[in-house]
Amino acid sequence: MKSRGRNLFITGIMTAGIMVLAGCSSNQNDIKSEPDMNLESESNISVTTEAEEEKPDNNDVTLADQDEAAAIGELKPEVITYFESTYGDFLKQGGADAEFLHGGRYIADCPDLDAEVVYEGMWHDDTADFSIEDSSMFLRLEGNTSAFFTGNMKEQTVEEFISELEENYSVASEYRESAGTAYYVSGEDYLHIELDSKDDEEVNSVIEIACKEGEKISPDSYCWVMGQSEDSNLFTEMPGKFAFSSGAGGWSTDIEISEDGSFVGQYHDSDMGVTGEGYPNGTLYICNFSGKFSNPEPTDKEYVYSMKLLEMNIENEEKIGTEEIVDETLYVYSTPYGFEDADEFLIYLPGASLSDMTEECRSWIFLSDAIFMKVPDGYFVIYNIGGQEAFTGQNEDSIWYRSCRYENGTAYVNFSPSYYMGSYLNFFTDENSPSALGLSVPWDGKSTETMECKKSWDDDGTIVRVTIEPDEGTTSEFLKYVITVECIADPQFDFSAWGSSEPGRFRAVFTEKKE
Questions:
Q1: Is 403 within the bounds of a domain?
Q2: What confidence tens digit (pLDDT) does each residue in 186-207 have?
Q3: Helix, strand or coil for residue 217?
Q4: Are residues 217 and 257 in the same domain?
Q5: How many domains does the chain contain in total?
Q6: Residue 284 in contact with residue 270, Cβ under 8 Å?
Q7: What is the pTM of this model?
Q8: How many CA atoms lie within 13 A of 363 on its CB side?
Q9: How far apart are CA 191 and CA 53, in angstroms?
Q10: How many Å apart are CA 273 and CA 282, to the nearest integer?
């Protein structure tokens, strides 16, 4: 990084003697001197002219000007020019050759800013390596925060910093958790800020500052600056957390993916029954790791994208295959299950046809072919082609994490949408009674067609028809469904406890149950 020192220049010419004349200066603060030079007159003579009496006191103006000069201002024009630029553009503007940074990224000193610039390298399948090309795209700027703004920064609270930004931008900010890798501006928590310019001609941007909650921001606070592309970032549309698991046993591989495709993860398999001398608490197979995916690219299949594994880093890689006893538990250091032969991954978004998945992929995803023809809303799949292993993730605000309820006095009915083995509809006469009728509903989250359902636990062949329709008052924030139930095998089934006067038939509006 370039030096952030600044040379000081003295532009005045000092004469051999200094004469103190009446009216020479209207404000003693205007006189600047070297530290050892005494400019005070021994007689402390002061002569005020008539013109000086008419002059306003400039002290207040000077302080106001100083406060304005200390404001952060806007992003420098030089910063904006880097957004959407290529490495070729950088070289044409006099930039020096970039050096390899990590994970296919390259870094170089900026010729016009006291900062550094990072470009995305290009992956080559034939050489299985990266290189930087003229077409390599800008990723971010790195440097002290003061290097990127037109104003003169001062140390200030985050609230003051945001307030000054709001003079020129619409601002959204939040603290984010770092995974402690090189893919974050800080090894600890950091401040993420999105700037939308009030001038439509400006490019919107993101800045991230190495600043934990409660800390102040200074001119030297380390900062990343990135352009906010109008292109959709698929990672922002996906859930952050994915898991690879069979659904049985005490093992899983969990990963958390950031918006730039970097991820952290852990594989763990607990076998508490395998004990021995010194480890009565059992055995734990463990692997912590981090890595980076490439930007997803569309395939010829609708709602299916492809991405590459660019980087994989295993914590304590030298310990793989070894074991040690910690806190009376035998730790066995392993490889990350789910990343065997990892190279290309496929992403299946909601709406992707299950018929476009391999049988091996479908075996891991907990979606029944009898219920679903497509990946349901709020559900995502990441499939490792080489290892034939699939990770699944769900948006936390999807219907699969929510439930609805209908009440009639002490009696009530719960409706719990579920992608795994069907949704559940359970009738209770009161809080202390078991379910009077429990139905497994093969609902895909969208269909309004009538479905034939069976009892959930004691299937005796009874067929019940269920229809689920969105109520006109339903929104993405608050669910409301109209559910109709018809007992075909037992047309005299008594639904009166739940407010129905028609034997064998029940119909009511269910509203979302908020915790």
A1: yes
A2: 888 899 998 987 765 555 889 9
A3: strand
A4: no
A5: 3
A6: yes
A7: 0.63
A8: 6
A9: 51
A10: 6
Q: How confident is the model at residue 41 (pLDDT cuts 50, 70, 90)?
A: very low
Q: Among 372, 394, 416, where does a domain finish? A: 394
Alpha helices in 85-155, H assignment, sequence order: 87-92
Tell me which residue range forms the domain holding 181: 77-227
**Dihedral sign computed on CA atoms, order 200, 205, 209, 213:** positive
As beta bridge partners, residue 344 has 308
The SS3 call for residue 79 is: helix
| pLDDT of 455 | 86
- Those residues whose C-beta lies under 8 Å from the C-beta of residue 301, and which sit 6 or more positions away, are 352, 353, 356
The count of other CB atoms within 10 Å of the CB of residue 383 is 23
Q: Residue 404's Cα: distance from chain center in Å?
A: 29
Pairing, β 323-326 against β 329-333: antiparallel
The DSSP symbol for 329 reads: E
Structure tokens of 176?
């984010």
Give the Cβ contact number of residue 103 at 10 Å: 19
For residue 407, the SS3 value is: strand
**Nearest alpha carbon to residue 60 among 52, 49, 68:** 68
**What is the token pair recorded at 323?**
């074991």
